[in-house]
Amino acid sequence: MRHSSLGGGAMTRLVRMEGIDKVFPGVKALDAVDFDLLAGEVHALMGENGAGKSTLMKCLSGVYQPDGGRILIDGKPVSLPTPRSAQDQGIGIIHQELALMRDLTVAQNIWIGREPRKSFGRLDEAKLNADAAAIFDGMNVKMDPRTPVSSLTIARQQMVEIAKALSYRSRVLIMDEPTAALNDTEIAELFAIIRRLRSEGVGIIYISHKMDEIRQISDRVTVMRDGTYVDTVAAADTPIERIIAMMVGREIQHSDIAIPDLSGAETALEVIDVSRGAELKNISFDLKQGEILGFAGLMGAGRTELARAIFGAEPIDRGEIRVHGKPVRIASPSDAVRKGIGYLSEDRKQFGLALGLDVRANIGLPSMGRHSDRMGRINEGKLSEVARSYIDMLRIRTPHDAQEVRLLSGGNQQKVVIAKWLLRDCDILIFDEPTRGIDVGAKAEIYRLLADLAKRGKAIIVISSELPEVLRVSHRIAVMCEGRLTGILPGGARQEEIVALATKREGKTAA
Amino acid sequence: MTAVDTTTAPRPSRRGTAHQKLLAFASLIALVIGFSLASPNFFQVSNIMAILQATSVNGVLAIGATLIIITGGIDLSIGTLMTFCAVMTGVVLTWLGAPLIFGVVAAIGTGALSGLVSGTFVAKMKIPPFIATLGMMLILKGLSLVVTGTRPIYFNDTPGFDLISRGSLIGWVLPGFPVPNGVLILFLVAGFAAWILSRTVLGRYTFALGSNEEAVRLSGVNADAWKMAIYALSGAIVGIGGLLIASRLNSAQPALGLGYELEAIAAVVIGGTSLAGGRGTILGTLIGALIMAVLTNGLRVLSVAPEWQTVVTGGIIIVAVYADQLRRGKT
Lengths: 511, 331
Prior knowledge:
- The complex is a heterodimer.
- By secondary structure, chain A is of the alpha/beta class.
- Chain A has helices at residues 53-60, 83-88, 106-110, 125-139, 154-167, 184-199, 211-217, 240-248, 303-310, 333-338, 348-352, 359-364, 380-393, 410-424, 440-455, 467-473, 495-502; strands spanning 13-24, 27-38, 42-46, 68-73, 76-78, 91-94, 172-176, 203-207, 220-225, 228-234, 267-276, 280-288, 292-297, 318-323, 326-328, 341-344, 428-432, 459-463, 476-481, 484-490.
- In chain A, the strands form 4 sheets. In chain A, strands 6-7-8-3-9-10 form a 6-stranded mixed beta sheet, sandwiched between helices. Chain A has a 6-stranded mixed beta sheet with strand order 16-17-18-13-19-20, sandwiched between helices. In chain A, strands 2-1-4-5 form a 4-stranded antiparallel beta sheet, with helices on one face.
- Chain B: GO terms for molecular function: transmembrane transporter activity.
């Protein structure tokens, strides 16, 4: 109803961006980028991390000001000096890192800045909630507008963001990696909403790294690389390999996993009957030197909880952990590091990086002892040399090793975390979603790195929500469901076997 | 369309701090019962009134502090601002001989103006609140001494000024309930602040700023202007605190003030408002201020040395915040 005026105009060009430039200190983030969006289409925007997708969209949503080029809306040049001015032009954005106020309710979040008022600045709470409810009705989503946002799942919070964008009567909806934290059911719900909006004439810009999603949902694909425009193609008749090649500028070769013979290898880690509350129930497994053990399962299956328990970040109620055959009590993460266990958190910003420090310092953080003298003075030259070798090895895109980590793109930040633990030379490494938000080209390198590390005798645990990734890297695959280890499969197991174990609820047998 | 009943709409503050408030309230009751059993002199009307009277200044200051803390900020200038407001009242009433009402306006206006200045430092100049208000604390302390020439200003020429705090409007209407005006003013201020927080746009943005300032900005709200408004309102409330202390002492003491900000922040924290911002209640702060007053009074009734009272107050703050941590189940 709110988009009725645009319903029929499938060919209406809503947005045109021409020759957009954007310069940040030390980086040309956008170089003469073109982009356009039609009414009633889903236009995927793809590119490796640091390609400039988010920057381009921030220019369109009034967060950044372009240094060159122009933006046309409905054929007329506009300037978008503030987020508010973009909203007034009907441009809504759902940020990658959700921009909600957790302590406020759903309705309060949606109408922030535009609260219906009574006299004396009083809020009209009834109208606020009723208007929010009407938007959710239009989206066909069940949601109590009075729920505090902090009690919602990420997927539900995303619905709130979409409702908020729609509340501006947006004709252009920008979604920056909306499915990054969603499970399959939630993704299906999101896609249903996207399709409904598209049929109502909304133009949707969809940023994602997931190829299968792009094929499912988008009409056209625009690819960016290193801050430049590469090409725009129709999604239906472009092979995925070609899109990837456009993104990385080269072809990726796939290789099957070679499972090494580990019969003579020493056992590095044994987990025996470990339990905590309802999160971990009687988990037992072992891990050999030179082995990569993948952990598959749905979100909330307890994989991260298990990793944090092994790493000493959270206590265990019962059970035993042995490192190289010796029972150990791991009371804290620093305890774990001393015993040779390294952990790469899935949330790199919160747990993995000191954002204000430079690349060199971040890489060296856990290994300062080896790069300083007895007086505690840091050998900057040595540290810089080592850091540069990892920057080369992992192809971390940074002007130099003294760049602050917060200025790097997400994927490059993740590479810094990996470099940190590689340098620390831990012999048991736990990777929790090692390629989350990382581009296709870098993923292949990280897989190769994991294999190299295993060859050098490291014992490796890889937790991943992407089944193809688990299959790609694992020598064995452990599957968890609702806090229990439901089975361990050999590498190269069939996808269906893993899914059956991942959904094997207590008291039921797998179908 | 679903009809939504506004009376059941949750205030954003209520959920997160309900337990803490209950805990704080239970502690308050326990303290009152404990002291009553320990000493027959404690639970007397005159002593209860003394406790309430003692709560009034710290309570009003703590309400001002609550507003700032909910935005995720902190205000260290509260104590010396209180004094400066009292001094300005003295200037207007005693030196200029203006009518009483101008003294009231001077206190509240000085507070609001100073809050606006702090708010400008924080919102426009992006100085961290701790630093901005630390600077204001010293500036205001110095100004009080400069203006008065370090000598107290007495209100002997302004009849009725002491009644602002010490008179009892309620006792005059309802003999037998000699609630001092200072306490009445505390509750009026509390009611007003609670209304602002729960019912008005300003209150909504107070919570929103503390919850996710960037999100507020991205929503197209003029976050800076609203933040300055909150600091100004907080300053005005501190101005009322300045009026109360001047009335109670019947003088403006320029050397007074330092340390009051910490007592106010302590009351806020004991009342369950999160220093991280986004959550907090005025009721919690009132209970927090009462706990501190009951403790001080009770220990005095039991003849505990004042030095030890301070030690106990400090311990209570640690215990209150630790209890909150335990409840959240995080370290």
